[in-house]
Automatic annotation (TrEMBL):
This is ABC transporter ATP-binding protein. Residues 1-25 are annotated as: Disordered. The keyword rRNA processing does not apply. GO terms for molecular function: ATP binding. SUPFAM superfamilies: MOP-like, P-loop containing nucleoside triphosphate hydrolases. Residues 29-260 form the ABC transporter domain. Keywords: ATP-binding, Nucleotide-binding, Transport. It comes from Ruegeria spongiae. The keyword Transport applies. PANTHER family: SPERMIDINE/PUTRESCINE IMPORT ATP-BINDING PROTEIN POTA (PTHR42781), SPERMIDINE_PUTRESCINE IMPORT ATP-BINDING PROTEIN POTA (PTHR42781:SF4).
């Protein structure tokens, strides 16, 4: 029997309410107050997360933000420096080795056995668990059917494409029916078209098997397409924990807005904050924006405001009674759309236009709707 290692434990705290799942039941993963250091590097700083049964949860973030470390700690491949609670399916797995946790990891580089057939690779986990051959073959074929590789049972790994290899890795992980499937940048090695197709396949696979998926990626497109909930990591902490739509439309900070691609971010001074509307002053203009949490916004305080380029309206001199004056700087052609760069008293503004026939010479002002202007207190 494998010896369980002792890990320093912190007293469980009330952090569970902050981890995105609330206090109700149905949690398949509960993890609180996890800190992890590699020597002097703090890879995770007092992080608490949870996952609901059947949820597609994504850990999103730049390289080095700590997402793989978090996944490896859940899998039991890394032992945290400190941990409060670490439970999978109501079992305390603190200090338990990877093979005693009800989860399986799929890696970017497949980690398949090259000398085995597809079928042998998929059934490997069943073989080491002592499942008899007939049952193994049945379950192996079922798992291959799930990933649409039923005809490739006898193939060798080197006879498969990158996308097919990743599907074999998925089938191999699913065949043992873990409670949680952990996926560490599984589409990272595939070309763009295949990656987009596989996103849809993974989404359908998740719906079909109903397992909890915890998915690591640095791609916001992958996170937004597939997830029920996204945890954005930054510098070993959680920057935002919300639905994909909230993350995209209502970033909680300038840092999140910048990561999520808000092209126009300025700082202004609050004049008034009521319900979710905030009036602020910026370069002598009185403007209005929207905040999800005005309790943190006081009159006179400095706030950040973010507007996506697609929400900037370009006004020609004939229609421009209101708005902010601008001068056209340059047009950047992007195929499906064109980005117009404009000089304004607020600073440079980027506007996205889909109409390639629009006349840039006549642009004299810009404006936007208050509900597309996100106000952030940090
Ligand atoms: N084995 C290690 N030894 C020392 N430092 C490490 C080790 N693994 C990770 N780190 C450091 O810990 C921090 C978090 O790394 P981690 O791999 O978890 O980030 P990540 O968000 O998954 O990045 P990536 O997307 O590049 O994989 C980084 O600063 C990284 O350099």
């Amino acid at each position: 029997m494998t010896k369980e290692k002792s890990v320093p434990q912190l007293a469980p705290s009330k952090q569970t309410e902050k981890n995105g799942c609330g206090t109700e039941g149905g949690k398949i993963l509960e993890m609180s107050n996890v800190t992890h250091r590699y020597g002097d590097v703090v890879a995770l700083d007092n992080v608490s997360i949870c996952a609901q049964e059947g949820e597609f949860l994504t850990l999103l973030g730049r390289s080095g933000s700590g997402k793989s470390t978090l996944l490896r700690i859940i899998a039991g491949l890394e032992e945290p420096s400190q941990v409060g609670v670490l439970r999978i399916a109501d079992t305390d797995v603190t200090g338990k080795p990877a093979n005693q946790r009800d989860c399986t990891t799929v890696f970017q580089h497949y980690a398949l056995f090259p000398h085995m057939t597809v079928g042998q690779n998929v059934e490997y986990g069943l073989k080491v668990r002592g499942v008899l051959e007939q049952e193994r073959t049945k379950r192996g074929r079922e798992a291959l059917e799930l990933v649409q590789l039923e005809g490739k049972y006898e193939r060798r790994i080197h006879q498969l494409s990158g996308g097919e290899r990743q599907r074999v890795a998925l089938a191999r992980a699913l065949v043992t029916k873990p409670k949680i499937l952990l996926l560490d940048e599984p589409l990272g090695a595939l070309d763009e078209k295949l990656r987009m197709d596989m996103q849809i396949e993974l989404m359908h696979l998740h719906q079909k098997v109903g397992l909890t998926f915890i998915y690591v990626t640095h791609s916001q497109e992958e996170a937004l397409t597939m997830s029920d909930r996204v945890i954005l990591m930054s510098g070993g902490t959680i920057a935002q924990n919300s639905s994909p739509a909230e993350l995209f439309d209502s970033p909680v900070s300038r840092e999140v807005a910048s990561f999520m691609g808000f092209e126009n971010i300025f700082s202004g001074k609050v004049l008034d904050a009521n319900d979710n509307k905030v009036r602020f002053e910026l370069a002598g203009f009185e403007l209005e924006g929207t905040s999800n949490d005005t309790t943190k916004i006081d009159v006179g305080m400095e706030v950040y405001v973010g507007i996506r380029s697609e929400h900037i309206r370009l006004l020609s001199s004939s229609e421009a009674e209101h708005g902010i004056p601008c001068e056209h700087v340059e047009s950047i052609y992007k195929g499906k759309y064109t980005d117009q760069v404009l000089r304004t008293p607020l600073g440079q503004i980027q506007a996205r236009v889909w109409d390639t026939t629009s006349e840039v010479a006549s642009i004299s002002k810009v404006d936007w709707d208050a509900n597309h202007c996100v106000v952030m207190h940090r």
